[in-house]
Amino acid sequence: MERTFVLVKPDGVQRGLMGEIVQRLERRGLKLVAAKFLLPSLSLAERHYAVHLGKPFYPGLIRYITSGPVLAMVWEGPRAVDLVRQTMGATRPWEAAPGSIRHDFAVEMSRNLTHASDALETAEQEIALWFSPDELVSWERPH
Ligand code: CMP
Fold first, then answer.
1. Residue 4 DSSP label
2. Pocket test for ligand 1, best of 48, 57, 102, 126 (most atoms within 8 A of CB)
3. Is residue 120, in this structure, part of any structural domain at all?
4. Strands 31-38 and 114-116, how do they pair?
5. Quick one: which atom of ligand 1 is closest to the CA of 116?
6. How far is CA 64 from CA 13, 27, 49, in A?
7. What is the CATH number of the domain that holds 122?
8. What residues are annotated to the active site?
9. Are 88 and 94 in contact (CB under 8 A)?
10. pLDDT tens digit string along 53-108?
């Protein structure tokens, strides 16, 4: 069982797509284990995107992610990291597979609605950055 981190970015919140994104992940069969709605601080944004520090798009990325509230979530399921990335679609919306969120709702790479962890190790780091352990809820579906 894997856990992965998902962020609905400010454009997703502002365009009213939070419900759509949550619904697609629920319908896929993944399980929500943590969620919070917040305006990310500069420090949180810088830590989240530390890997992109120095890249030309970094200042714009930090401005964008701190420009409005985001929905931060942790989703659980078998192969959750890959499943979620497939549901989101490729980072570049013009390369996203038909039926994926970025294919269906995005056109720009810099306004691509969501962030999802790219590997298990990154997922662990991002979950620890955005959530404290007691904010993760373990629960089971009745059989
Ligand atoms: P995300 O999955 O959040 O990870 C880093 C983000 O940086 C990425 O989605 C894009 O929104 C953004 N990004 C990556 N490359 C570029 C680029 N070349 N120009 C603008 N934004 C980019």
1. E
2. 57
3. yes
4. unpaired
5. 2
6. 12, 29, 12
7. 3.30.70.141
8. 115
9. no
10. 999 999 999 999 999 999 999 999 999 999 999 999 999 999 999 999 999 999 99
Q: How confident is the model at residue 143 (pLDDT cuts 50, 70, 90)?
A: confident
pTM for the structure as a whole = 0.95
Look at residue 141 in the predicted model and tell me its pLDDT. Answer: 85
Look at ligand 1, atom 22, and give the residue with the nearest C-alpha.
Answer: 110
- Return the structure tokens found at 54: 């120095």
Tell me whether residue 9 is annotated as binding. yes
| Domain that includes residue 30, residue range | 2-37+70-135
Question: How far is the centre of ligand 1, averaged over its atoms, from the C-alpha of 88 (Å)?
Answer: 14
How is residue 133 annotated by DSSP?
G
The ipTM value here is 0.93
- 102 within ligand 1 shell (Cβ under 6 A): no
| 105 in any annotated domain | yes
The model's pLDDT over 22-63, given as tens digits with 9 standing for 90+, comes to 999 999 999 999 999 999 999 999 999 999 999 999 999 999
Q: Per the structure, how many domains does the chain have?
A: 1
